């Protein structure tokens, strides 16, 4: 098993749905990282990029190379829209 790491805010990832709350019929989803904890002991806030965007928590300890695959970085305009819709 690979070591957990804290992803960069605004990064895009393929995420295995096994690390998400139960009930997703897909094996992977594209997710944008909205907020990150200071260490791997916290929770990452992601927004799933699917038919209906939704904000979900992911335990950072599950954020490993075996569970996520990098896709790049969300453009500034797209990220600003996510922040506006999903930040607390």
Number of helices: 1
The major pleated sheet works out as:
5 strands, antiparallel
- By helix and strand content, what is the structural category? mainly beta
Low-pLDDT regions: none
Mean pLDDT: 93
Strand sequence of the main sheet, in spatial order?
4-3-2-1-5
How far is it from the N-terminal to the C-terminal residue, by CA? 33 Å
Radius of gyration: 12 Å
Total number of distinct structural domains? 1
- Give the helices and strands as they follow along the chain: EEEEEH
Number of strands: 5
Helix proportion range? 10-25%
Strand proportion: 35-45%
C-alpha geometry: globular
Can you describe what's shown?
The protein is 12% helix and 36% strand. The chain has 88 residues and is mainly beta. The protein has one domain (11-78). A hairpin with a 7-residue loop joins strand 2 and strand 3. It is globular.
Give a concise summary.
About 10% of the residues lie in helices and about 35% in strands. By secondary structure, the chain is mainly beta.
Search tags:
88 residues, mainly beta, 5-stranded antiparallel sheet, 5 strands
What is the topology?
Layout lengths: L10 E6 L11 E8 L7 E6 L5 E6 L8 E6 L2 H11 L2
């Amino acid at each position: 098993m690979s070591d957990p790491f804290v992803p960069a805010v605004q990064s895009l990832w393929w995420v295995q749905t096994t690390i998400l709350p139960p009930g997703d019929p897909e094996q992977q989803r594209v997710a944008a990282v909205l907020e990150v904890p200071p260490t791997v002991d916290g929770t990452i806030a992601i927004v799933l990029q699917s038919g209906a965007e939704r904000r979900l928590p992911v335990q950072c300890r599950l954020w490993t190379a075996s569970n996520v695959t990098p896709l790049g970085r969300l453009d500034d305009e797209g990220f600003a829209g996510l922040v506006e819709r999903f930040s607390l």
